[in-house]
Queue: 2 jobs
Job 1
Amino acid sequence: MDKIKVEICVGTTCFILGASELQELERFLPEGLRDKVDITGATCLGMCKDDNYGQAPFVRVGNRIVSNASISSVIEQIEEQLKHR
Amino acid sequence: MISNDTYVEIEYYQKTKTGEDVCGDDFKTVSLEDESRYIAVLSDGLGSGIKASLLANMTTAMALKFATRDMEILQSSEIIMDSLPVCEVRKISYATFSIVDILASGKVRITEMDNPEFIHLRGHEEIHHEKLKQVSSNWPDRELQLSNFEVMPEDRIIFFSDGVSQAGLGNKPHKFGWKREGCLEYALQCINNQPQISARTLSRAIVTQACGMNPQCRCIDDITCAVVYFRKPRRLRLLTGPPFKKDNDSEYANYVVNFEGRTIICGGTTAQILARELNREIKTHLFMRNNGLPPTSEMEGVSMITEGILTLTEVARCMENTVPQQEMAPAVKDMINMFMESDVIEFIVGTKVNEAHQDPSLPVDLEIRRNIIKKIKNLLETLYRKKVFMKYI
Ligand code: FES
């Protein structure tokens, strides 16, 4: 099974609004999820310039955007997507 | 003859005698008439510490003034020697000097008094020059040595205080000191290992090597070495901010492709645009520790990619307050080092407005970007004598 791609935006807007903590995501991932995701960084996902996406910081999980992202909301989204596989 | 495309890199490095607070050698340099002429002066004051420092500083200040005004050299030296304060103990006033006067046409005139003789290198070969000697009737034992010659691109001129040539004095294996020959040999070795070695690196290497000749690496004297390198300019281009019009994106990308030199990209969106235009992939170093700054990324053909405003602000702050390197965030340190190792720096500033509107209190604002770049430009020009250009797109 393909891993779920998790892209954490570390552009200026996202970084200031909380992405600096999201960088630690891997450390907080439950054991069972570790080998199911592929975590990378992104320079700016472009959502911060678009009103339609809500509040930064943004994380892309698979092909869904998590806005106002926190470690727990990202983990939730990963689990959600695993359920539907 | 040196061409228009030759950059005159003048750098020096020095170490103070162990136990003294101030260096008794002094080095000063100016560039005149729109960089068509450079003058550099090195002086070694008698003794060490504050007294020596005073003598050396007075000497370089006067020598630089006189040379700038094209005063007759013998007369200038007499004034210098006459005006230095006399040492209570030794009843003499004394400071050596070397004046290196360079015209953009490639003509060089060097006047030396009692410093070790300068070294002129063309590639791996030392070039010797006939020297004209002059003596003032008031100071019969102070001989001036004058040399006039032309340099070629890639030539180097090395000159130093006797802290270099006498390094290791009294100790094996250099009982009589490293001497000018030892320094020459070492400089050639450095050039052999690294043919494009910068004046900055070479002067540091020589001083460090000289210092290492002394027992426990203590400086038994002030050590100063200056290097002039007539080099092909090392170019650096920094792109930051998205272009004003989207149509300009491809032109923007050309600034990366058609460029002989190093490139830095500052800003996530900027990096995205360039990656798209150039069809290259960006890799972000997510787990890199960058002291509270966003991590850096990489892309083929680009030396460095950082976040924009926060990183640039920190770069400006560190440059302005001369923050020690070990306290800088890695990205900041790397960027400043790249500035230092470049001669000509271009800032290409994208001017798209209203970049992020998520939070009006965020400092992501064109005006701020422009102001930080202006500040960095100023610092580079005044503190580091870099040639800096700025272009808005
Ligand atoms: S900085 Fe994160 S989407 Fe722009």
Note: Residues A 9, 11-14, 44-48, 56, 58; B 268 surround FE2/S2 (inorganic) cluster (CB under 6 Å).
Job 2
Amino acid sequence: MASRVLTRPPALRSPAFRSIGRSVLLTLPMALWALLMFTPSFRQPGRNLHIGALLVILFMTALFFLMMRTGKTYRWRRYFFVALGLLFPVGFIASLVAVRGTMSIPIERMVSGDTPFCYMVIPMLILPAAVTRTIIFPGSILPTASNPHSIAIMIGLWLALTLVVGKAWCSYVCFFGGIEEGFAALPKRMKIRKLDPRLRLVPWAILLFVVVLSAALFEPVYCMWLCPFKTVTEYPAVHSVTTAIQMGIFITLFAGLVVVLPYLTKKRTQCAFFCPFGAFQSLFNKINLFEIRFDREKCVDCTLCQTSCPTMALSAESIREGKTLLNCMKCGACVDSCKKSAAVWHLKGTKVALKPERARLLFLYGAWAMATMFGGSILANSISTIIGFLPLR
Amino acid sequence: MLGLATGPICLASCGPVVLPWMLVQPQRVRSHVRQLSIFLGARLAGYLAFAAVIWLAGIALARSGTARSWIMGGVQVLLAVGLLIYAAAWPHARCGFVRRRKNDLVQIDAASTATPKPRPTGAIALGFLTGINLCPPFLVAGVRAAQLPTLAAALMFFAVFFVGTAVWFMPFLSLGVVRRTPSFLTVARMAAVLLACWYGFTGGSLLIEKAIYG
Ligand code: SF4
Ligand code: SF4
């Protein structure tokens, strides 16, 4: 295991990668896409929403421009991702409180299917749905007036995004990962440097556990017992020893995996060592067109990339083989940190390191478009909620 | 017919035990056939033992919530112990869960693909325990058996019920062809630990609840 200390995030050290003119030109399609995405928001009434949408358009476009100008991906993506992770709970909790008056959900409302659908459940749905044609989640399959985020819409959206970005979902779409990425960014140095590489297998074991047990019990076991993010979203009302134990587990997991360990290790520990959905999503890396590869002719085995990887998706052997492990989420940290330009973006089916910037561009257009569409609307909503709380006239 | 019809529920009840246990077996279809046969044989023994007890004790036992909770709690705790032993590849050859070569004192490395040839004891223990695990179809069958006029009829009824449910276990044989890499075995063992925790938790809380509230 690499023990080199990452003292700084992959930084803007190199001279400008592209001219301003070319960067603007390359950013233009994304700016148009962002405008297109938020046009409906401007048609809706509500000044706060308009301000939120405008800020998000500027924010996403500026970040994309900086990616083009500097040639760095991870550094700028991280601003978006941390903002998404921190602002998602704000908007979500505010709407829960507005609708229900509380963050907790009473059991009657859960049974009546009045629960927003979360993509984390998807791997647990497959077996019961295949065997018994039953969806083991208490939500509405089709959208309703009270619950527009229906199961069918969320699954369709997940599938579309996953086909485009694969496991990069975890770097560009997921609204949970940003919280720990934020905590991981806080310290200058890793406080814990040695991590057992077998830890990266734990999400697969949890995936197996939740899939088997959900099929056995006919309930989404992860949501009932293991989701750390219940702490900052919606939790079952505590009215018994069982629900108190559940809350205890949620809070412990959140504090440990999302706050403390990322701070100590500078890794996304929940994503890397726990999240079963992340493991499931890794499978789609097999069919996704984009990946990170290592140009063995340039690589000097300095392990800088390995140390900078937030999910331990690199090992000495994988680098020697010129590949990442299956759990690579295409965040770009390794590429940004490599001083020899040996870590490169790669379009499958082409020669490695032939036109890495072209592969990066193609990937980023897809991933950033998804990020703007999915994460951007969450950001706009949360910003408008926050503005609503401000004492402005 | 009852066995066939309720098979998916039986599978759902026993699957969390069978799946991780089969995944840590060596990658050979023959070995899987052997182990699954022993497992099912032990499960049948569990069924018949239950049928005999239920017939002798009468329908009251099948319907008694207290007895059911004690049995279920106890069985689940034992299943947890069984899975934990498997997950840890217990280094003591005497417990019989893992066969070791003579003088082989080295504990199985979690990252080793050379899974030792398992002794039948593990399959027998887990099979018997799942055989007396009181899942809902099992209780329905128990009530029916308790009403039968003779012990032989009750045993026969459970034997046929067993055949119906056993069919549903055949897909597990396909796991014999799945390639065992070191990572795969580690994942299977970790999942077995998690499932053991689950059974330990549910069984333990049932027992504690019964001990406190009666
Ligand atoms: S690993 Fe899980 S929590 Fe982390 S980003 Fe991916 S889906 Fe989200
Ligand atoms: S291998 Fe590189 S791109 Fe993949 S997760 Fe690690 S740092 Fe990110």
Note: Chain A touches chain B at residues 131-132, 198, 201-202, 204-206, 208-209, 212-213, 215-218 (CB under 8 Å).
